[in-house]
Amino acid sequence: MRRCIMTNDVETTSIINGGLRVETGDRVWKEGLPLILDIYAKYNIRATFFFIAKYAKRCPEIVTMVHKAGHEVALHGLTHDHKLSFDTMSYELQLEHLVEGKKILEDIAGEEIVSFRSPALRVNSDTPRALVEAGFRYDSSVAPQRLDMFMSLGSKNKMQWLKAPRTPYETAIDNLARRGNSGIIEVPVSSFGAPYIGTAMRVAPRLTKLTRSLVYCETKDTNKVVNFLIHPIELITEPQLNEKIERRSKNPIAYLLSDVIRHQLKLKNLGEPAVKLFEKEIEYWLENKYDFVTIKDINGKEK
Question: Could you tell me the CATH number of the domain that includes residue 223?
């Protein structure tokens, strides 16, 4: 069974200027989302969209247009503020964010929301229990054996990715990166050392071709699933404001890696070049006869 999931993180984070910006959210709503929905319609495929709930509450159109197109609506957290990351919040605060965010999306979409991806893939040992209590059944916040974690915030907790299973699995109640019986099904983001995501596709197209080939060899005759992560904002451009990039970490090494260097790398191939690269990824999986499914289509009991 050959399956591919296109997962989309819909947020207001500006790649060019850094930080959360209302203007970026408006561009995603009016340009990025319509563009990526047109691409999916062109190839007749279904996808999963993870929404920041506060953004969706301000612009409910971003949810309705995705829902009407037949894609899965999922939660990407209440906010993408790095000061309120899931790996730093208590169980009680995580549960509060999950319940509120879930209700916002359900009120807009008119259906139950069962899938979650944490902002920046940051979680802690309380996250599985909070997901269960909030009524979620799926998560996609783990990237097994992804090795660029040191260039992102929360890298200490992400070390657990090194031993995470590569097939969809039921998680432990205290660790999304380990098997268990929590009732939460983890659908890992694809990686093979390098992540199989939009950023890597733009920054290092040749490396991404190699990663894609390895993921293909791993998934073509197994129950493993291709899970490609992209942001609609990657397919468009914004005016550069030349403002100082926000410093998110007090640690000078973390600031250099996750803010300065990572920011510069992420500016490559935005807009039309990204569209062309993205369509090549879709065409590759179609040519190899993969079915495009959503997160909630996955059966986590597979081995």
Answer: 3.20.20.370
